[in-house]
Amino acid sequence: MDKELHQQNGDGQVRQGDTARQEDSGTAERFSRSGFIFAAIGSSVGLGNMWKFPYITGQYGGAAFFLLFTICLLLIGLPVLMAELTVGRGGRGSASSSLVRLSGRKIWGGFGVLSIAGAFFITSFYTVVAGWTLHYAVLTSANALGKGTDFAATFFSFIGGWWPVAWQAAVMLITGWIVVRGASGIEKFNRILIPALLVILIIIMIRVLQLPGASEGVSFFLKPDFGKLTNESLLVALGHAFFSLSLGMGTMMTYGAYVDRRQSLGAATLAVGGGDLMYALLAGMIIFPTTFAFGIEPAQGPGLAFIGLPAAFSAMPLGWLFGGLFFVLLAIAALTSVVSLLEVPVAYAMERWRLSRSTATVSTTVLCFLFGLPSALSVGGAVGWLHWEGKSFFDWVDFIASNIILPLGGLMVTLFVGYAWKHAAQEAGLTAGWFRLWLFLLRYVAPVLIVLVFLHTSGIWSF
Fold first, then answer.
1. Which domain holds residue 185?
2. pTM of the predicted protein model
3. What CATH code is carried by the domain that includes residue 250?
4. Backbone angles phi, psi at 389, to 5 degrees
5. Strand partners, 156
6. pLDDT at residue 356 tops 90
7. Rounded to whole angstroms, how far apart are CA atoms 456 and 463?
């Protein structure tokens, strides 16, 4: 990196000529200001908002946990999010090269590759679940899941066959078709689907709030029960605040490289965090009224989405319509996240091996699909025997990526911006007071909390 980039004038700002040189380095792709907000919200809004967040909120005290989650979002989520965006815009490269350009040391690039690997692994199994949502969107919309269906048997029969591979391939094709168009394609995709996601959420929420017994679900979700807050609930809130914003996997560093230099990173960070909270809250206002109205246990994960809720929708008037909308909702949430995940290794491949975007996208898409095949077939399918210590291949890839690589990637970013990068202030564009607070959180608060989350989620230490 040119020495001039580190030189400042008397008022502490980078000189105009140096900014121009930095603007010309790295990728030439750019998001518009609003387009970046849509893309970043699309990355953060995923399947976890739809089924995990409502479940853990109800389990750990309803509104009390929501308040705790919001605090954790402010203390760890948003500071790390802004750190990733700042590194990306400052380095104007992949999640690896940006760190090298800003530090001048190749070792940081190795840490960046770890985050890129995490994004690759998550893409490989996340596309499998995204394929399930597409399959159920078609089934439900066609009214093929009628009342009286054995929904558990239907689901396990589906994931035990070969159809998940076909739907996984469909997700990969859609995602690759979007990513190959670069930042402009990703922006246009999210500009359409994120507002559509909001509209569908509101339509379904209005419908389920009219169900008998729905008010009990709303009360369970929003009534604070501070007696359920424990040390474990704190770590769960910290972990979800971290993971719900797509941190530690290189997505926000990669997207940051496409952010216009005139865009306020502070305002963008708050907008993304607010969008993540809003979508999670609306999801809870759908899940709990529905489960309480039909006496369904709000179990975490696929059991709720693919067994419990289809049963509920099949029992309500026009259930095929609202059930179809719900699975379209899940499919949109999954696709917007997969697009951001795939962009991470694609951007790295383009830069590392000097590939065109089309070549990098096709090769990365094929590799992700092939690596994801055992995940698609290990959950009761043809390679269901791929189990070790009670976990399938799918579970192990999820565990390694989500519980080990992501926290380490997030820790790396906090240490880099907090200690190694001496010129973060200029790129962040914060006032002196806000910068000192941000730096304090990155140096002394976020690393400790991330380590605690890592110890908890990895199973090394039970609290």
1. 28-457
2. 0.92
3. 1.20.1740.10
4. 50, 45
5. none
6. yes
7. 7
